[in-house]
């Protein structure tokens, strides 16, 4: 999605791999199982996570205002609609909407999985910016590898403190759904922090172009 790629650059985030290489990101099963175990064992609410979640909330609102802001004032002009039914069967349908600068989000209030810290409106904002800047900006879907790639991409738009909460919200929940719940249901939403190492983008794995073996990504590159 060209305008989202340019928009993410203009926002001033970090790219952990060269643009276009996010198709090589893979969810390593050993690492994923470890992240899952950490998420499942974490409390639903931990007061030690408040600072990180406060930063996540503040930075998410800023990203959301940028996403929906009018283009003539420097925003990206995306219209976000909050719906009571899950709007997309797959990422392709979401990306098709975003081509026309529209995005639908499944309302937190319509689910039975409320967030213990973020309000419903704040959680809906987070879902919108993660779908736009995490998934659509790199054209990756909602399977395990796509979610890992979206976490890696979107982490570059958050401060290190907020990134810890982002990791719980995305990488942690995704791994718990895949490795603990076996893809049968979404993981319980939590406001807790995983071990710091799991928030480190250098732990992500890339498939080598020729051998297919997994390796660590290159260091971050500042997007301007």
Could you explain how this protein is built, in words?
This protein is mostly helical. It has one domain (2-207). The chain has seven helices and seven strands. The protein has a three-stranded antiparallel sheet. Strands 1-7 form a two-stranded antiparallel ribbon. It has a two-stranded parallel ribbon with strand order 3-4. α4 links the parallel β3 and β4 (102-106). The longest helix is centred in the last third of the chain and has 21 residues, at 160-180. The chain is globular, with a radius of gyration of 16 Å. The model has no long low-confidence stretch (mean pLDDT 93).
Number of domain units: 1
In helices, the fraction of residues equals 40-55%
Q: Which structural class do you get from the secondary structure elements?
A: mainly alpha
**Tertiary shape:** globular
Rg over alpha carbons: 16 Å
Mean of all residue-level pLDDT scores: 93
Distance from N terminus to C terminus (CA atoms, Å) equals 17 Å
The low-confidence parts are none
- In the sheet with the most strands, the strands line up as 2-5-6
Number of helices: 7
Q: Which range does the strand content fall in?
A: 5-15%
Number of strands: 7
Largest sheet: 3 strands, antiparallel
* Multimer state: single chain
Q: Order of helices and strands, N to C?
A: HEEHHEHEHHHEEE
Summarize the structure.
The protein is mainly α.
Keywords:
single chain; 224 residues; mainly alpha; three-stranded antiparallel β-sheet; 7 helices; 45% helix
